[in-house]
Amino acid sequence: MKTTIPSTTSALTTLLRSDFITQWRNRRAVVLVLLVPIIILVSWKSAITKLGAAFALSTCITIGLTAIGLMGYSNAIARDRDKGVFQRLRVAPIPRWAIMISRLAVQLAMIMLITTAVFVVGYKVDGIELTPMGYTLGYLAAFAGGALYLGLGQMIVGLLKNAETVNSTTRLVYFVFIMVGMFGEMGMLGEKLKDIVHWSPYGTVKTILSASMQTVGWSSDASIALLATIGYAVVFAYLGIKWFRWNTR
Question: Shortest CA distance to 204 belongs to which of 156, 150, 148, 151?
Answer without folding.
Answer: 148
